[in-house]
Write a structure and sequence with these properties.
This protein is α+β, with helices and mostly antiparallel strands. 39% of the residues lie in helices and 23% in strands. The protein contains 8 helices and 8 strands; from the N terminus they run H-H-E-E-H-H-E-E-E-H-H-E-E-E-H-H. A 5-stranded mixed β-sheet has the order 1-2-3-4-5. Strands 6-7-8 form a 3-stranded antiparallel β-sheet. The protein starts with a helix and ends with a helix.
Length: 287
């Protein structure tokens, strides 16, 4: 009987010890954890939450305005979550791309952003047509313009956006457009500039081969008949190269190296080829 009582006392003491340890662990976990929603993962919820906070999360917003003056449309992949500095940086980039002035007064609400863009551009288009003396245009020649800012690729280190802008005014020979990419480092929101630090004969040969693939030609002579620049002095694109899933993309603007009819050539160089030519900050993101 004495042995049984001693056993019960010890068991009760162990219960208190276990309860005490549970409380201590719970308090420590609540202090070290964060309020972000967890994501189910085979690696555990803590790892899943950390990864979710590193990767950019976006939602798509679109708006269209149709009036007598013309058609305005806009599409944006707007950051809704992810690294705080990157989210803030990309939001500012989107707003500064859409609006020419008073960017600081523009709301962070994406629905309001696309609606305000359409409103401002509709007014600007109307004023432009008045200055041109084109208050009335036929249905077949209605002016159009718009902007698309799309998330091209993102991982836990960087995110690349593609910006496409176009404009067509009546009585013009053809419309105008621009298409380029921008890469952001997610840990601090830094927008990468020129990521190619040097160009030598080896990299140059890859650019030339990429041009041949784009234009679907096989010889230097055929390529030279298309390009308006000296192939021995191939310039870099107007806009800096950017990072993609497949490699570094050199996206030439219209008129950079060829007539308008050939568009805006793209050359993507695999990372295993161009890694030695990248800046240190770009190599850190892709190696």
């Amino acid at each position: 009987m004495q042995i049984f009582c001693y056993f019960c006392i010890m068991l009760r003491n162990y219960s208190y010890i276990i309860l005490l340890l549970t409380v201590i662990l719970s308090v420590n976990c609540s202090k070290s954890g964060n309020s972000s929603p967890t994501v189910s993962s085979v690696n555990g919820s803590d790892t899943a939450t950390r990864i979710a906070n590193q990767i950019l999360q976006t939602d798509s917003f679109v708006s269209t305005a149709q009036s007598k003056s013309g058609l305005i449309d806009v599409y944006i992949d707007y950051p809704m979550g992810g690294p705080e500095k990157a989210v803030s940086s990309i939001r500012e980039f989107i707003k500064s791309t859409l609006f020419e002035e008073n960017v600081s007064s523009v709301s962070d609400d994406p629905s309001s952003i696309v609606e305000e863009y359409c409103r401002q551009r509709s007014t600007a288009l109307h004023n432009t047509l008045e200055q041109m003396g084109l208050t009335k245009v036929s249905r077949n020649e209605v002016p159009e313009e718009g902007t698309e800012i799309k998330l091209l690729f993102a991982n836990e280190k960087y995110a690349t956006y593609e910006v496409y802008r176009y404009s067509y005014l009546t009585n013009g020979a053809h419309g105008e457009y621009s298409d380029y990419g921008v890469t952001f480092r997610l840990r601090d929101g830094r927008r990468l500039g020129n990521i190619i630090r040097k160009v030598d004969e080896e990299l140059y040969s890859h650019i030339i081969q990429g041009m041949k693939r784009y234009f679907k030609v096989s010889s230097d002579r055929e390529l030279a008949s298309i390009c308006t620049v000296d192939l021995s002095l191939m310039p870099m694109p107007t806009f800096p190269a950017y990072l993609t899933k497949e490699g570094v993309c050199l996206h030439y603007s219209i008129y950079d190296i060829c007539p308008f009819e050939y568009g805006d050539p793209k050359v993507t160089i695999p990372y295993e080829v161009c890694l030695p030519y990248l800046t240190e900050e770009a190599r850190d993101l892709v190696k």
